[in-house]
Write a structure and sequence with these properties.
The chain is α/β, with parallel strands linked by helices. The chain is 35% helix and 14% strand. A hairpin with a 6-residue loop joins strand 9 and strand 10. The protein is built from 11 helices and 12 strands. Bound molecules: pyridoxal-5'-phosphate.
Length: 351
Amino acid sequence: MSRFLSGAAGRLAPYIPGEQPRDQQYVKLNTNESPYPPCPGVRRVLESANAADLRLYPDPDVIALRQAMADCYGLSADQVFAGGGSDEVLGFFFMAFFDRGDKVYYPDITYGFYAVYTQLCGLEGKTIPLREDYSLAPEDYFGLDGNIVIANPNAPTGMAISPAQVELILQNNPQRLVLVDEAYIDFAKDQTCVPLLAKYDNLLVVQTYSKSRALAGMRIGCGLGAPEVIGDLRRIKYSFNPYNLDRLSILIGIAASAARDYLQEITGKIAATRDETKARLEQLGFTVLPSKTNFLFARSPVIGGYELYRRLKEKGVLVRQFEKDRIRDFVRITVGTPEQMDRLIEAIGEL
Ligand SMILES: *Cc1c(COP(=O)(O)O)cnc(C)c1O
């Protein structure tokens, strides 16, 4: 830290991204990236992109991409906010809908970024414990005195609640905004809360193109909500980074939005590999939580979480482990290709 750093910045505990190793070739199952390439339309965009266009700023309204996303979700463009990855949409949510000192509620075990934004914005983070079996109890979220953030399906557990259960949370918090982070929803058939937007103006659904659309390297995400809520997010964006999506992201986002069949194909493949891998891990004695995502959260019957992570890494297989109460004996394993899963199972067998 320099001697110029503010006290508040010095007290932050920043998010720690999963390793992106450069030292050797790993079977990389640690950051929930897709094992398959983005849709063919993305390659065509890259091949036909015109470098000279890059001297011009991109459209700050991102209207073409927002319209493409709206078509994809059956919404209108004024219900869509486009962000540089869903992390940026989450950040704008925290900046837009809280004053310093306000409370924000989220589960004790969930995506680590919520606590980071809470701290960055000077809020009071209130964690609500998941049940013993790591499921989320909707009734624990009724009548709260702060906005609510839930990842559904949750990370790193992979478990989901139904849209009907989310609806109960919305009904019981009419004066609160409920953010549902659907980063993994394309792997959980028909579980999206997007249809609830027709009935509830206190819902903000956040999705990303990083996982199911295989575009983590590009930074494209969106927020879906009532036009007024979307307008509030735009207010923050125009106070922070008006050109938040660059020209290439916009073109690639449009191409990816249109590729519905391809999305079905690769998410279907990944879901099938996931279910097979879960069964194989259970045969080896592992406890595996029921996953609606592109990862498995699994506990070995004999090896602790950190030890398993470390020994798999020695064998060239990279998974993620969290040094956190209640989950330190688990590892989170991204679902890769069937061949990558064979390598994983083989490495575990050798241990
Ligand atoms: C990966 C992930 C994100 C962030 O995704 P980006 O769009 O790449 O920023 C947000 N929320 C959850 C729960 C995630 O797992």
